[in-house]
Amino acid sequence: MSAATVASARQRAGAVIDHVVRRFGPRVVLDHLSLTIAEEELVVLLGPSGCGKTTLLRLLTGLDRPDGGTVEVPVRRAIVFQGDRLLPWQRALPNVALGLSGPDARQRASAALAEVGLAGRERAWPKELSGGEAQRVALARALVSEPELVLLDEPFAALDAITRLRMHNLVRALRRQHHAAMLLVTHDVDEAITLADRIVVMSQGRIAASHPVPLSAAEREAGAAREDLRAALLADLGLANQL
Amino acid sequence: MMQVNPGPIAAAGIATASSRAADAPMTGTPPPMLSPTTYGLAPAQGREVFLASDARRVSAVSRWRKRLSWPLGIYTTPVAILITWQVLAEAGLLSPTAAPAPTVIARTGWQLWQQGVLGPDLEISLVHRAALGLLLGLGAGIVTGVIGGLLRSGENLFNGIVQILNTIPILAILPVMIVWFGIDELPKVLIIAFGAFVPMYLNLFAAIRSVDQRLVEMARTTGAGRWRLVTRVMFPGALPGFLVGLRFSLAFSILGLVAAETLNANSGIGFLITNGQTYMQPDQVWLGLVIYAILGLLADQFVRLLQRVLLRWRPGYEAA
What totals of helices (H) and strands (E) does chain B contain, helices first? Predict the structure, then answer.
């Protein structure tokens, strides 16, 4: 990527990752990886487990620092982790309002809970919530700060299939409300096709392939375009022979 | 009754298989579904049947059963011992000098109270010594525990010295205290404070360090500030460990109280005991012991109550 394109991309990008390196001892997990996420774009990062997806996400949150290259992200960003990571000693509302301050914090948190379909559950303890409900509270906690970049680290992996479909609908609905760039990490090909504007496949510490998904909601459910994309993705993941 | 017993389940598989073998050739129905009649006629060995029933009535019944089965709760064993003790004493099986009956001890307590002896002694022991020492010890333990838990420099400052103090028994420092501070109230208060300080520091330090790092990480990503991180994540997360420390602190400070008062005192519960010993009044000695025992019990119940109130959020706290 030339300097000029990087500069122009930054002005409108949700995130710019430029030749990032991350090592754990002798093991190179991210090997000069570059990825740009456009404003309001939903990019799905696909890859087998252990390929460095979560490592990349942690760099984007700022929890870890790269060993080389640059990561540029908006200050207003939020992450939804694989587990709900709710504070068990706080009820739902203060959990959502954890990062908020100001007199309207409670109203905003309450509105965020309503947005994920949990109006009226403000006073529930995390132990009283089901897995899907807890994950929705975590989603509300991420969205309540009106982030420009939302990072989702396999947020639905631990949920059952039906709850996961509901969560997909919720994510689509929330995208219409919030104009944020999103990076969703998953190892589920179908989830990727359902949600993505663009699917990037990670392999050996780099982005191995990038597939735009210009499909309608119906085309994502079934059809030749979907099957072609699915086959291409499986091939990228090295699973083509096992179909 | 939440336990799952694997026995009947395994047995159920065998039972179903054999009943299928018996039924299937006759009726020709597909085996996986059990027909309602089979179900009704043979509640069968190797199976468990769970029925829906009137929830409110069941809960009322079980509540009564719970109340009747253990009406005294954890006091069951102490009360049983007291009753046995009383019966054995009345039957003349226990010598009155070795172990006077509980009623005799109680009567002695009442008499001493009326003579105006017990009241001041209690006040001196509990308020002037135990409460003051606890306040000092817990205060120091909490302040240093929080600093040591939150800051690396705090750990370097306090951890070594408290680990050293932890290996020194309370009774061993008593002579040093007397040499340094005489036989006044000060060494007694300091002994109690010492007993409370060490377990509070150690437990609080460990509790703060073992707060779930995933939650700390999460709080950082929400943009919560340092103060909020400490008050909303670190402190509540360390609370269970803090309560364990409090329980040990109370127990050790009572131990310190007994040690300090027994060695030299001219007032207080320890004095009551040495006095009883000197003048051959075993019931008075026993009264002192009983008061110490009740203090220990009250301390434990106090921490239990705190746990019940403060740890409501914990899954399964009702069982605690």
Answer: 15, 0
Judge: A87–B224 Cβ closer than 8 Å, yes or no: no
Question: Cβ of A85 and B239 within 8 Å?
Answer: no
The predicted model scores a pTM of 0.78
Interface test with B, best of A60, A64, A98 (most B CBs within 10 A): A98
Q: Does A63 touch chain B (CB under 8 A)?
A: yes
CB nearest to B232's CB, from A83, A98, A141: A98
Superfamily (CATH H level) for B102-319: MetI-like (1.10.3720.10)
Alpha carbon distance A96, A138 (integer Å): 7
**Does the complex come out with an ipTM higher than 0.90?**
no
Residue keyed to tokens 């009360």 = B79
Sequence spans of domains, chain B: 6-51, 58-94, 102-319
Per-residue pLDDT of chain A in tens (243 residues, 90 and over written 9): 445 455 454 456 689 999 999 999 899 999 999 999 998 899 999 988 788 888 999 999 999 999 999 999 998 899 999 889 999 999 999 999 998 888 899 999 999 999 888 999 999 999 999 988 999 999 999 999 889 999 999 998 888 888 888 889 888 888 888 888 999 998 889 999 999 999 999 988 889 899 999 988 888 888 888 899 999 999 888 876 654
Partners of B217 on chain A (C-beta within 8 Å) are 63, 85
Residue with tokens 């127990």: B251
User: Going edge to edge, which strands form the sheet with A206-212?
Assistant: A77-80, A149-153, A181-186, A42-46, A198-203, A206-212
* Complete domains list, chain A, with CATH: 36-87+148-242 (3.40.50.300)
Contacts of A79 in chain B (CB under 8 A): 221
Residue A79 at interface with chain B, using a CB cutoff of 8 Å: yes
